[in-house]
């Protein structure tokens, strides 16, 4: 399948279009030092969250608790700086990531062992984790003055014109994409999402993979919490509230099917960049505040509609191919191209 | 939970029995002199730096007046968490109760009971419905807040240029009232300042931060941002402090010293406003003492002397206004911790 026909290319194109149009209206959007930095920096946190969420969604699950995990770990980060000022930055960051992993494992364990839908479980832990933060923080708040300058500087520092947080997000994206596409475990996540029952029958370690996916999602939410503290410099008990919806939106816009089994983390990352760039572009081109959410909502619905249209078109084509060829012809299509399209094809074959 | 509430109830009963006798005796003796005036300070919750500052003010006033101030309060600011503390204070027969209400009605019955037992009730910071208290010490008036913010921004941008407002949510009642007043005042008193846009950060750090970025990009000539919300001003200051606009675009509004310390110290923010919670606690205690002494009854037009803050007059609905918002800048921010 040619590069241009891939879903990711479409989102990247839309992103370039948004940037292009906005830059024509207001050249500073891209060409000022701050504009360039914000363009790369703003989506960094959501990209990290979206990568984690994509891994979970690919297994036909969802993690709605990520906003609360981010809030809890961001507060933990600030708290550690206040209560243990001698800890090195790296240790604080690792502690937050570890806490996120633990919270993710709780989600994963309930989903994998109790076999309750992830939507319900993580909706529950969304409130539980937020409640823990509220109880812990109360009306207290971490202010910029409470955190070391060196840490806060990371939130905006640039290396060769690229913000540090963006580099972190890019490294996370590359590592997870590599794992999903090349490792046995990564491929098994797609298989589980395509057909959980078949995956179990085929002897895949479904529970272990689910635990792993949720733990990774939690760990990345923990990392996002650290990044949040560094970038915004203020952490209250409400940090990250409502972010789960943004993340799921980004993943869906990025072409990860909400029913699992297909999509790429690169798509999810592009979806996150597109959503946030549109968010920033709309006020610059002069769309009133109140319309901005409606535009973002329309974009999400548009993405899902596009998904649906593409899926039906492809399944019709596949059905036609099946009717034309005798059985056995399709197997030649199967292992031809390992990659997202391969998985998408397989899903559609299953549903066709 | 159950166990704790049983214990609390038990303690309250013991206290009630033990103290009923005391308060009976104290009531008779206290009628003559006011040397055993006891005031109970009941903030929304304990461990909150803002209320620690107001209690410090209360202690200061108590020291000057020679009365005793005792601080009690719940750990969390839930609507009815203050009720047991009010009941206990009433049973102790304290002279006055100084309360920041967690809820305008939930503690009403308890306050009424306390008042019928002879305790004077002063609310501060957050009022109950007027029938439940004798006085409300109001930290700021809408006009005062609007005027002070315009005064600050005008001073910081040299009296002319484009400004924008970064508010809380689009339906926040307080903020909308202040913005409407600021718009009026801008039109009449500041002809050279143009308000180019009002955006809403929803009192969310991230949203406020991103809206600030958008404001600065869509209005290249912007000279200042006014944010009448503590979340907004901190987010705007954080953005500006790490951008090329630092030192070129003024940020002011309503903020708390702890949130803004970093940005005042690094020069992003010259000055911002808020009431002074220490003064608020001081005035509330002075007012409570004046009520107990019988100098005032809480009727409109009553006047009383409030130590270092001077003379105050009770306004409509039993309200006493602290005064103009307090301005925090590099010279005094180190004195505050809330």
Description of the molecule:
The complex is a heterodimer of chains A (352) and B (338). Chain A is mainly alpha-helical. Chain A has one domain: ABC transporter involved in vitamin B12 uptake, BtuC. Chain A has 17 helices and 2 strands. In chain A, strand 1 and strand 2 form a beta hairpin. In chain A, helix 5 runs antiparallel to helix 6. The radius of gyration of chain A is 21 Å and the shape is globular. Chain B is built from 10 helices and 14 strands. The longest helix of chain B has 29 residues. Chain B is elongated and about 65 Å long. The N terminus of chain B is likely disordered. At the A-B interface, helix 3 and helix 14 of A face helix 7, helix 8 and helix 9 of B.
CATH architecture of the largest domain in chain B: 3-Layer(aba) Sandwich
Under CATH, the homologous superfamily of the largest domain in chain B reads Response regulator
Classify the beta-strand content of chain A into a percent band: under 5%
Morphology call of chain B: elongated
Strand order of the largest sheet of chain B: 2-1-3-4-5-13
Number of domains of chain B: 2
Rg of chain A over CA atoms, rounded to whole Å, is 21 Å
Q: What's the number of structural domains of chain A?
A: 1
User: Which percent bin holds the helix content of chain B?
Assistant: 40-55%
- Write the CATH fold name of chain A: ABC transporter involved in vitamin B12 uptake, BtuC
Biggest β-sheet: strands ordered side by side in the sheet of chain A? 1-2
Mean pLDDT of chain A: 86
Instruction: Please state the average pLDDT score of chain B.
Output: 86
CATH class of chain A: Mainly Alpha
GO molecular function, one term (chain B): carbohydrate binding
Subcellular location (chain B): Cell envelope
Domain Periplasmic binding protein (chain B): 39-294
GO biological process, one term (chain B): rhamnose transmembrane transport
């Amino acid at each position: 399948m040619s590069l241009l026909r891939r879903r990711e290319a479409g989102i990247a194109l839309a992103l370039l279009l948004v940037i292009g149009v906005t830059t024509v209206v207001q050249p500073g959007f891209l060409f000022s030092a701050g504009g360039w930095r914000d363009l790369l920096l703003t989506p960094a946190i959501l990209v990290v969250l979206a990568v984690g969420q994509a891994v979970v969604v690919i297994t036909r699950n969802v993690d709605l608790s990520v906003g609360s995990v981010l809030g809890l770990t961001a507060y933990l980060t600030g708290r550690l700086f206040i209560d243990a000022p001698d800890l090195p930055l790296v240790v604080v960051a690792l502690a937050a990531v570890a806490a996120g992993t633990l919270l993710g494992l709780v989600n994963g364990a309930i989903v994998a062992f109790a076999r309750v839908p992830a939507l319900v479980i993580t909706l529950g832990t969304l409130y539980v984790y937020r409640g823990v933060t509220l109880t812990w923080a109360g009306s207290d708040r971490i202010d910029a003055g409470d955190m070391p300058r060196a840490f806060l500087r990371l939130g905006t520092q640039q290396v060769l014109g690229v913000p540090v947080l963006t580099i972190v997000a890019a490294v996370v994206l590359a590592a997870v994409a590599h794992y999903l596409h090349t490792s046995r475990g990564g491929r098994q996540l797609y298989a589980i999402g395509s057909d959980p029952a078949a995956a179990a029958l085929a002897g895949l370690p479904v529970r272990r993979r689910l635990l792993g996916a949720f733990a990774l999602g939690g760990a990345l939410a923990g990392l996002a919490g650290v990044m949040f503290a560094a970038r915004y410099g203020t952490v209250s008990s409400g940090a990250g509230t409502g972010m789960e919806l943004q993340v799921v939106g980004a993943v869906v816009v990025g072409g990860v099917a909400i029913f699992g089994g297909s999509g790429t983390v690169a798509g999810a990352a592009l979806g996150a960049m597109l959503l946030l760039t549109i968010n920033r572009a709309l006020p610059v081109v002069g769309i009133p505040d109140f319309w901005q959410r409606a535009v973002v909502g329309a974009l999400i619905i548009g993405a899902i509609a596009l998904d649906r249209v593409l899926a039906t078109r492809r399944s019709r084509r596949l059905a036609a191919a099946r009717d034309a060829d005798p059985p056995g012809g399709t197997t030649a299509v199967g292992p031809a191209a390992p990659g997202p399209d391969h998985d998408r094809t397989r899903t559609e074959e299953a549903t066709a | 939970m159950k166990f704790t509430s049983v214990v609390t109830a038990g303690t309250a009963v013991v206290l009630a029995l033990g103290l009923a006798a005391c308060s009976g005796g104290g009531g008779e003796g206290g009628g003559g002199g006011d040397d055993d005036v006891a005031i109970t300070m009941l903030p929304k919750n304990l461990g909150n730096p803002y209320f620690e500052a107001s209690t410090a003010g209360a202690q200061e006033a108590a020291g000057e007046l020679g009365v005793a101030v005792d601080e009690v309060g719940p750990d969390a600011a839930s609507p009815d968490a203050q009720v047991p503390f009010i009941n206990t204070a009433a049973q102790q027969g304290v002279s006055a109760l100084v309360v920041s209400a967690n809820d305008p009605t939930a503690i009403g019955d308890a306050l009424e009971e306390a008042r019928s037992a002879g305790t004077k009730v002063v609310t501060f910071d957050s009022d109950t419905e007027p029938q439940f208290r004798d006085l409300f010490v109001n930290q700021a008036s809408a006009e005062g807040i609007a005027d002070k913010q315009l005064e600050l921004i005008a001073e910081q941008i040299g009296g002319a240029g484009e400004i924008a407002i970064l508010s809380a949510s689009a339906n926040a009642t307080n903020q909308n009232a202040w913005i409407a007043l600021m718009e009026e005042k801008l039109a009449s008193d500041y002809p050279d300042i143009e308000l180019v846009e009002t955006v809403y950060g929803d009192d969310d750090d991230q949203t406020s931060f991103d809206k600030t970025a958008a404001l600065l990009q869509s209005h290249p000539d912007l000279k200042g941002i006014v944010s009448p919300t503590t979340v907004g001003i901190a987010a705007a200051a954080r953005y500006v402090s790490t951008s090329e606009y630092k030192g070129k675009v003024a940020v002011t509004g309503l903020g708390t010293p702890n949130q803004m310390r970093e940005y005042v110290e690094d020069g992003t923010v010259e000055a911002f406003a808020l009431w002074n919670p220490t003064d608020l606690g001081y005035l509330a205690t002075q007012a409570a003492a004046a009520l107990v002494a019988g100098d005032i009854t809480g009727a409109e037009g009553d006047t009383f002397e409030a130590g270092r803050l001077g003379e105050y007059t009770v306004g409509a609905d039993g309200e006493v206004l602290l005064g103009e918002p307090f301005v925090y800048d590099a010279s005094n921010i180190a004195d505050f911790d809330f």
